[in-house]
Amino acid sequence: MKAICSADALQASTHLSYMAEVGLLLIILGGGFRAHSQRTLGKYFTWEVSLKEDHKLCTIGPYSIVRHPGYLGLWVMRVGLNVYQSAGGSVVAECIRPRYPLVVGFFLWVNYLTTPALIVWMYRRAALEDELMEKEFGVVWRKWAEKTPYRIVPYIY
Closest Cα partner for 27 from 71, 73, 61? Predict the structure, then answer.
């Protein structure tokens, strides 16, 4: 079996560029924030837009910063992935891209083109979730939404 990465390329990939480091940092921070958000919701976390039978409105931890912190974490991870995959000094750039340029190019463009679609999906889903939560929790939700005015990105949206 042939190695994907030559010894020289592997050596070069051990010295990440500044942008590759930024990308990795964003992936780690975004993933950590998303995981923390899911853990904070505990048993109320679901993959679909829904309410549990005994659902409680979560307003603590990352939910005191933005109303949909899991989406913020996902967005930060996705930006980090795009930055990392594009940066010199990454394993992708130094080992895989030279050997499989069409495959890597295809996946890079898929990432670039689907990131805006992911943002639109998060925007729409957050609005749907807010509507559901407001309907279920009424005044309590409105007070929390007033105190936590940003859906996904602090000071922006």
Answer: 73
